[in-house]
Amino acid sequence: MTPTGTTAPQLRQVETSRAWPWFTEAYDLFRQAPGTWIGMLLIYIIINMAASAVHGGSILTTLFSPVFSAGLILAAHHQASGDGVKVEHLFAGFSGGQLGDLIILALLNLAAFLVLGIVGVLIAFLGMGLAPDKLIDMDALFENLLPILLVVLILIGLYIPVLMGMWLSPALIVLHKLSPVEAFKTSFKACTLNFMPLLVYGLIAIPIAIAATIPFFLGWLIAAPIFTITIYTAYRDMFPPAPNFDATQPIPVPPPL
Question: Are 215 and 223 in contact (CB under 8 A)?
């Protein structure tokens, strides 16, 4: 049940072929303000690096990750609505009344990560008999490489549902005012219903990521903002109509500067 005062999102199943337009529509938005998008991502990276250099700062980056994600979603939303995009949109998640919900979302993700860590330890030590000393000694580590890789693959498989629940949650919180739990469930449902386009999305993302990495990672200056915006273009495709636009129509891109 949607909490009072929220906008109930209308979820739809999209065609598998929609995966590619998520990228092209994201690129259309990026090319209108490449400097702003690259600047926002660079600022976010610098903030993360600075926080990680401080003792316990990595916890802060984890807690505020959905907050910055929400800011980037709002940046794409403002630009798609014809209002333009500004660097200060990166910090929009800290205002608007959803800061607490976004941090709770981060805590849910952290709790899931810790639970999976415990599960991984139990599988490794009890299920496969991998003693802690085998993970320290390099010779024993290589001898048990296959069981260790199997544990890693199991944990990745278990974490995928968490990623599905987290992927669209910031957008659902800031644009539809859903509670963190409701946003997580709705995001998971959206990803499940649209499994095929998401699978194609992942297959498209792999060569783009490889190409962005080859030239000394410089390609990520373009790829990272586009990947970020695809979260919004996928969201607005799965949840029409989102606030202030009709998702069945092309994104209204502002004229070039």
Answer: no
Burial label for 100, CB within 10 Å (0-12, 13-18, 19+), is: exposed
Answer yes or no: are the C-beta atoms of 239 and 247 closer than 8 Å. Answer: yes
Residues 6+ apart with CB under 8 A from 28: 251, 253
CB 214 within 8 A of CB 10: no
Residue in 16, 9, 8, 10 with CA at minimum distance from that of residue 194? 16
Reading the chain (257 residues) residue by residue, the pLDDT tens digits are: 444 345 568 899 999 999 999 999 999 999 999 999 999 999 999 999 998 888 878 888 889 999 999 999 999 999 999 989 999 999 999 987 899 999 999 999 999 989 988 887 777 666 555 655 555 555 655 666 677 788 788 888 989 999 999 999 999 999 999 999 999 999 999 999 999 999 999 999 999 999 999 878 889 999 999 999 999 999 999 998 644 443 333 333 333 33
SS3 labels along the chain: CCCCCCCCCCCCCCCHHHHHHHHHHHHHHHHHCHHHHHHHHHHHHHHHHHHHCCCCHHHHHHHHHHHHHHHHHHHHHHHHCCCCCCHHHHHHHHCCCCHHHHHHHHHHHHHHHHHHHHHHHHHHHHHCCCCHHHHCCHHHHHHCHHHHHHHHHHHHHHHHHHHHHHHCHHHHHHHHCCCHHHHHHHHHHHHHHCHHHHHHHHHHHHHHHHHHHCCCCCCHHHHHHHHHHHHHHHHHHHCCCCCCCCCCCCCCCCCCC
CA distance 185 to 174: 15
| pTM, two decimal places | 0.83
